[in-house]
Specification:
Length: 185
């Protein structure tokens, strides 16, 4: 099993995900360098790639869960959040239809591009730091945790944020439209 696990944790899909996740984390850590237009343009292009790479992460079961760790502190998360919020300003808040799993029920929810991207950053950075420990157990846990967080947390946040970014870039949805609108807050 160890050889099989080693092949999985160093597979092409995992290494490509590491590359994309690292690029996004570096970008978000240097967000002060970029204006709103560049930020939106970059995110519009890279978020679909991250989503695609997230879907291709292997479903691996770690042999031991003791090697699973989180690294990003609240202060680090808040720095990313506030840097993004400074760029997006009043355009940060959006509304989306949230499905409850029941196809006939949905409700409008309020979202924040900055909060969603800071949450995605936290999950990606935690993944990268654990994966870079370069032990089989750490890498198995990093992949397993990141895949589960993609399925249950950051995957959907990425999709909602990407849609909001699209609307900001092209200005084609207003508050009274069906799916999404932006508040003045």
């Amino acid at each position: 099993m160890s050889k099989e696990s080693r092949e999985i944790v160093q597979s092409k899909n995992v290494l490509e995900f590491v590359t994309v996740a690292n690029e996004i984390c570096l970008f978000l850590e240097e967000i002060e360098k970029y204006n709103m237009e560049f930020l939106l343009s970059y995110l519009q292009k890279v978020l679909p790639l991250l989503y695609l790479k997230g879907t291709m992460m292997p479903d691996i079961k770690p042999e031991e869960t003791e090697s699973n760790e989180r690294f990003v502190t609240y202060d680090q998360w808040e720095k990313i959040y506030l840097s993004l919020l400074t760029r997006t300003g009043t355009k940060d808040i959006f509304y989306y239809a949230c499905c409850s799993g029941n196809e006939t029920e949905s409700k409008n929810e309020k979202g924040s591009i900055s909060e969603n991207l800071a949450d995605i950053y936290q999950d990606l950075k935690d993944f990268l730091l654990l994966y870079k420990k370069n032990t089989l157990l750490a890498q198995e846990n990093a992949i397993h945790s990141c895949r589960k967080l993609f399925e249950n947390n950051w995957g959907i946040k990425l999709l909602y944020s990407h849609q909001a970014i699209h609307c900001l870039m092209y200005g084609n949805i207003k508050n009274d439209d069906f799916f999404m609108g932006f508040s003045s807050n």
